Amino acid sequence: MKINKLSYQDYLFVALQFLIFATYFLPFKIVSIDIPEWLRYLGLVVIGLALILGTTALLQLNTKISPFPTPVSNGKLIRTGAFKVSRHPIYTALIFSAMGYTIYQESLLKLLITLVLLILFYFKSGYEEKLLGQTFSEYEDYKKKTRRFI
After folding, report:
1. Which pLDDT belongs to residue 5?
2. d(CA 139, CA 62)
3. Percent of the chain at pLDDT above 70?
4. Do residues 69 and 88 make contact, with C-beta atoms less than 8 angstroms apart?
5. If DSSP codes are grouped into helix, strand and coil, which group holds residue 127?
6. Rounded to whole angstroms, what are the CA distances from 5 to 8, 9, 94, 113, 126?
7. CA 40 distance to own-chain centroid
8. Averaged pLDDT score across all residues of the chain
């Protein structure tokens, strides 16, 4: 397999992702949403499930993990475990973790930032899927059987 070179798009997606994460964790609250207590705690359950999915995907990737959408050299297409549930289980876990914490914190600002993160991951995963399709001939079949996110 050839060595894949990173493009400006790789760096742009990762830079935007970093900025969104940094903004999400800024310690301020502009507008609060009034959410029932039981729903707030359901947000923690969502975080727990997301952590299980994300950790499983990280363990499956082992040393072949990269923040960049370009596939790593000598990588393999994984279609089992977390990757059977979602084509992008780490993105899915990050989105659900952000949403769960947003609910728990009752923060309208975090909700808006989570939506921006979802949009970023939609476009980042689309770019990544184009590259995965060029790298792995069986990727199109995998796309038909597995959802992008949950």
Report:
1. 81
2. 20
3. 97
4. no
5. helix
6. 10, 11, 26, 30, 18
7. 22
8. 92
Backbone angles phi, psi at 3, to 5 degrees: -85, 125
Tell me the backbone φ, ψ of residue 58, rounded to 5 degrees.
-60, -45
Task: Summarize pLDDT for 55-82 with one digit per residue, the tens.
Answer: 999 999 988 889 999 988 888 999 999 9
Inform me whether the pLDDT recorded for 146 exceeds 90. Answer: yes
Domain boundaries, the chain: 33-145
Compute the distance between CA of residue 47 and CA of residue 49 in angstroms, rounded to an integer: 6
Place of tokens 């770019």: 127
pLDDT of residue 4: 64
Measuring CA to CA, which residue among 61, 77, 76, 75 is closest to residue 139?
77
